[in-house]
Amino acid sequence: MKRKAFFLDRDGVVNFDVRYCHEPEKIELKPGFAEGLKLLHAAGFLAVVVTNQGGVALGMYESDAVDACHKRIQELLVPYGEKIDGFYYCPHHPKVQKDCSCRKPKPGLFFRAALDLGIDIGSSYMIGDRISDLEAGKNAGCRQGFLVDSFYFAEHAPKARKAGFLCVSTVADAVKQVLELEKARGS
Ligand SMILES: [Zn+2]
User: How far apart are the C-alpha atoms of 182 and 21, rounded to whole Å?
Assistant: First the structure.
């Protein structure tokens, strides 16, 4: 049987966005993230990070730095007894590669994760801090996208609402809404 998942943008959703974050020591988990992770795992979902890391293509940092940041996220989750089930990132940037199939809002990362982890994207959800994250989730076929409060919220929330996405304060809030919705529909 296929699994269902929460796809999560990284910077601004899992950790605070410090722009082209590539130093593990600068990773700080956002409030409500670990709690949300606990709730979604308890409900049988997987947690998959999908992140654009164009800084790799731009030569700002190496893919090793991306891996080090992901390792740091896992370390920070240990005290909560939690972990991320998969990290997928696009190392490309339009200034370097005209076209790739994985930079969000393209859905390539979602498809790769779905193949690897046996995920049914149609029963899965996307949480991002920018409208392009939510569009990526929609392009992949996710059931619903959530815009989480961050630096971009004031600018992106009106557009997100107009496009049918839901706005939340934290990842935990998004997960709670999904669990309520699923309870109501009996799935
Ligand atoms: Zn790419």
Answer: 35
